[in-house]
Design brief:
By secondary structure, this protein is mostly helical. Helix content is 91%, strand content 0%.
């Protein structure tokens, strides 16, 4: 009976340590920031491609 009490106390201590531990927090924040930047770049690709296509078509027309 005493062994299970010690085990419960150890698990409780482990959970408290994990709850207070914030070592990986910075890594998660950087990951979220990189994801947000990647989504913004992906969303801007279509308008950028359209604008570049217009520029090259205009240059092609003026050279002809």
């Amino acid at each position: 009976m005493q062994y299970s009490f010690r085990k419960e106390k150890t698990m409780k201590g482990l959970l408290k340590r994990l709850w207070k531990d914030d070592d990986g927090q910075d890594l998660i924040e950087y990951g979220l920031l990189v994801t947000l930047i990647a989504l913004a770049v992906t969303a801007s690709m279509k308008p950028l491609a359209t604008a570049l296509s217009k520029v090259f078509n205009s240059a092609s027309s003026s050279l002809s």
